[in-house]
Amino acid sequence: MRTSRYTDSQIMAILKKAENGVPVADLCRENNISTALFYRWRSKYGGMDVSLLSKMKELEAENERLKKMYAEEYFKAEIVQDALTKKW
C-alpha cells in the first residue's frame, strides 16, 4: 500500500482551512494536491480529529494484516485438502 506524502495532522489542517472558508481551489494550489484528492479526503476524514484519524489508520492496517493471514491459512488448508483427496 502506498504511503501518503501528508501526515494525518497536515490532512486535518487542510480540511480545517476549507471548513473556515478558504476556497478549495486555493487550498489545492497551495498544497499541490488535486481537487479530487481533496474531496476524497473530505469524504473519508471529514468530521474527524487527529486522534480518530490515527485510530482509523491503525484499524485499517490491522484489517489488512488479518486479511493476509486468512488468505495464507485458506491456501494451506486447500493444499492439505488436495493432498488428502489424491489417490497414491
From TrEMBL:
* One Pfam family of this chain: HTH_Tnp_1
Q: Which UniProt keywords apply?
A: Coiled coil
Q: SUPFAM superfamilies in the record, alphabetically?
A: Homeodomain-like
Q: Name one GO molecular function term.
A: DNA binding
Gene Ontology terms: biological process: DNA transposition
Which parts form a coiled-coil structure per UniProt?
49-76
Note the InterPro entries from the entry.
Homeodomain-like_sf, Transposase_8, Transposase_8_domain
Answer yes or no on keyword Coiled coil: yes
What this protein is called in its record is Putative transposase
The uppermost taxa in this organism's lineage are: Bacteria, Pseudomonadati, Spirochaetota, Spirochaetia, Spirochaetales
